[in-house]
Amino acid sequence: MNVEEWTAHIDGTLHTMILATSSLLATHPEREKLAIVLQALAEGAEDHPDDSGQSRAFKAAVRKAVATMLQGIATSQQAELRRNTVKPSRDN
Predict the structure, then answer these.
(1) Which of 80, 63, 64 is nearest to 27 (CA)?
(2) Whole-angstrom distance, CA of residue 45 vs CA of residue 60
């Protein structure tokens, strides 16, 4: 496996893990508290003083992963709100 294939393999693995984690977070009863923890993780990564290319890439990856997971939480909250506010049709 060459470097590009290995990088793509790792990227695919991480993407899958992020999406799976997002799904689990979205259904967790404490998802609002977990969202706060995720935001703190992203902020903590930003606080790292190193400004090398590797550090910038790491910070960007953390931001992207956290944003994906937070979007999953937000989507589940919207779905739950709709489910609780939409009245069932009497046509059924």
Answers:
(1) 80
(2) 9
pTM listed for this prediction: 0.75
Q: What is the pLDDT along the chain (92 residues), one digit of tens a residue?
A: 899 999 999 999 999 999 999 989 988 999 999 999 999 999 998 887 888 988 888 899 999 999 999 998 898 888 888 888 876 666 65
CB 41 within 8 A of CB 61: no
Selection from 64, 60, 86, 69 nearest residue 32 by Cα: 69
Which of 30, 31, 13 shows the shortest CA–CA distance to 22?
A: 31
